[in-house]
Amino acid sequence: MQTKFAKRVTTASRSFTRTILDLTAQSSIISFAGGLPDAALFPRENIEKHAKELFKTEDNRLFQYSNASGVEALKVEIAKKYVNTPSTQIMLTNGSQQGLDLVCKTFLDEKDCIIVEDPSYLAALGLFHMYNATIKAVPLSSKGVDTDVLEVLFRDYSPKFFYTIPIFQNPTGYSYTLENRHEVVRLAQKYNVILLEDSPYEALRYDGVQTKAFADLLPELTIALGTFSKTLAPDFRIGWMKAPQEIISALTLSKESTDLQNSKFFQHICAKMMQSGELQEHTKTLIAYYRPKRDAMVNALHELFGDSIEFVVPEGGMFIWVNFKKCADSMKLFDVAIKKGVAFVPGSVFFADKRVTSYGRLNYTNSSLEQIETGVKKLYEAYNKL
Amino acid sequence: MQTKFAKRVTTASRSFTRTILDLTAQSSIISFAGGLPDAALFPRENIEKHAKELFKTEDNRLFQYSNASGVEALKVEIAKKYVNTPSTQIMLTNGSQQGLDLVCKTFLDEKDCIIVEDPSYLAALGLFHMYNATIKAVPLSSKGVDTDVLEVLFRDYSPKFFYTIPIFQNPTGYSYTLENRHEVVRLAQKYNVILLEDSPYEALRYDGVQTKAFADLLPELTIALGTFSKTLAPDFRIGWMKAPQEIISALTLSKESTDLQNSKFFQHICAKMMQSGELQEHTKTLIAYYRPKRDAMVNALHELFGDSIEFVVPEGGMFIWVNFKKCADSMKLFDVAIKKGVAFVPGSVFFADKRVTSYGRLNYTNSSLEQIETGVKKLYEAYNKL
What we know:
Pfam families (chains A, B): Aminotran_1_2
Protein name (chains A, B): Aspartate aminotransferase family protein
Strand order of the largest sheet of chain A: 2-9-8-7-6-3-4-5
Largest sheet of chain A: 8 strands, mixed
Low-confidence stretches of chain A: none
Strand content of chain A: 5-15%
EC number (chains A, B): 2.6.1.39
Cofactor (chains A, B): pyridoxal 5'-phosphate
CATH architecture of the largest domain in chain A: 3-Layer(aba) Sandwich
Shape of chain A: globular
Oligomer: homodimer
Radius of gyration of chain A: 21 Å
Keywords (chains A, B): Aminotransferase, Pyridoxal phosphate, Transferase
C-alpha cells in the first residue's frame, strides 16, 4: 500500500548534516562538522544544586499542566536583555528551532515568499521548504547583506519575513556592521517586512563590541529568537521569542495547538541561574575556553594552508567559513578528508540553491586544542591530495 | 501597520477551554472543566530519587544534543506495550499533542480530508483547523462510531486519516466495543485509511477488561499515540507514537525540522520507572484514588438529578458526558453554574460544527471527594434555576 504523505514531505530529504553527525559520533573521526557546544563545560554542579532546591521548595504544581508561554520568572529575566520590553512580549519555546517553526506556522500560507541570507542555517532552510515557502536568497558578505539586492527582493516579492542571523552567522561566522543594520532597518520599514532575527551565538563574543540588535533598532517589526542551548545546555530545550504583543499572542495560540506547553522544570533552573548571576559567570567561562580554540584553529589554518585558502576570523560564535579556493567543489574535499579522519560540512548545503561551492564550515567549540591541531593537519593533507 | 498572518491563524480562535481554565485557576470556583490529573498524586519521591541518580551516574552527554526520536531505553519499554513491535517503530514527542501536530505536518496538504468523531478532543479539532483540513465528523455513541456513516465518508472523501479515541474517549468517556473496532478495521483496510489512534487514558481503567487496540488489530495502517501526562506528570512532556517503519521515519524527519529533539532528562527518569515497575505500581495508586472520585460524581449526579439528566458511567478515564436534557443549550447552564461557583465545559465546543447541544463534559480527577459533592450540588441548583 502506498503511504500518502503531504507534498512537503516528499520534497524533503534527510539532513546531510545529520548524516555526518551520525557518522562521526560512532568513530574516531575528528569532527569539525557539528554545531555542538563542548559538553565538558556544562555547568553541572549549578544545575544539580538548583534541581535539588526545586524539589525542596516547589509544591506538586511544578509537574502539573501550565500555560503555553512559559515560566514568568524566566520571561522577566530574558526581557531585561531588550530595551523597554515587558515580559508579556516574551514567550518560551522548545529550543529556538521551535520558534522558527511557530513563526512559519503563524505567518506562511503556501507559496508565500520569504528571504534568507545566502548561505544560511541549514535546518531553517529545511523547515522553510516544509512550509512550501518561496525562498529567495540575498548574498551575504563579512560586512552584512547586499542591501541593493535586498531592496529589489523586498519590492518585487513582498516577503512575509527576512530570516537574518546578524551576529556570528551560521555558517559563516560573519556579523553585520551597524551601517548595514541601519540600511536593513530602513528597507524593512519602507516595505513593511518583518525581520526574523535569530541570535543563538551572540553571548559567545571573543573580540569586538556588541552592536545593536534589530529587536532594539526596529522592535515593531522584529521577531527575535534566542536560546540557552549554546550558553547553558542543549538538553534544556529552552529558546525564546521576543516580538510585539499582537504577534506574541498569535504565536502563543500556535504553540498551544502545537504541543500545549514546554516542561517548566529546566525553565525554573534557568531563571535561578540568571537571577543569581551564575549564567553570566558561566558565559565568561565558556568564552575563556572557546577563544583559545578559535585562535588555535585560525593559527593552524594560517600556518598550514597559507594563501591557498581564505577566511574571515570570526569575532565570536562557533564557526569558521573557509574558502578552499583551489578546490572548486568542497564536497570532493569532504570525501577525501573523511578518509583521512576529519569531517567538516561542505558549503553547498547552506545555499538555498545547493550550488557547487569551494567553501566549507568548520566548528571549533566541540574539539580539544589537540584535536584542532591534528584535525587541521589531516584536512591539509586531504587538500594537498586533490 | 497590518500584520499579515497566515490564513490558518485568522480562522483560529482562542480555545474556550483555556479561557475557562484561566478563569477557574484564579478563583474559588470548583472546576469540573479541565482535564487535569490530581497534582497531589504525582510520584514526587520516585522522580526525585531517579533525578539524583541521573546526576550521579550519567556523564555530561546527558545535557548535550542527541537524536530526534528519543531515549532508546524508554522506546524499548514502550514497545513492549504492543505486539511484536521493535523500538524502531516508536518515537517520543513533546506530549502527545505534538504527535498530532507531526502527523498533520507529515500527511496533510491544504484541504485534505480527515475524519473525526463527533464529538472529539477540542485541541485536536483546533489543530486540524490550523492545517486547513477538510473535517468530516462521524457520530459517536457509547458503543463506538456509526460505521455506516464511516463507510460513506471513507468512500466519498478518501480521507488521509480517521482520528479516533477508542478508549474512555474525550469528551464522552465512551469506549468502542470489540465488534465496533473490528468493523472499523475492516473499513480502514477496504478504503486504505490510516487510523490515528489516540489513547491518553487507557491505563486509567476502573472497571471492565481492556480490549485490543487498533495498533495491534491493524498495525500496518495505525499510528498510535500515547502519553505519560495522565499516569506520571504533564510537565514531563513525554508522549509517543507507534507506527510502521516508513511512517516513523517520515515523522522523525518532521520532528527534526520542527524542534530538533526533546529533553532526554525526564525520558531517562520515565524509563527507570518503567524498568523498575514503579510506574505500574503508581498507576494502581492512581486508579485507587480516581475510582472513588468517579463513583462519587456518578452517585451525586444520580441522587440529585435523577431522571432529569442522562449519562453513561465511564469504565475509566477522566470524564463524564452528561445530557442536561431539560436545557437545550448547555452554554446557558454554564453561565448560571459559574455564578453558583462551579465550572464544566459546555458540549458545543467538542463538535466539529460547534452545534448547540444539551451535553456537557465533567471532569472528576482533579477535584476532592468533598469538592465533587459540593460542586454537583451547585450544578443542580443552577440546573433548577433555568
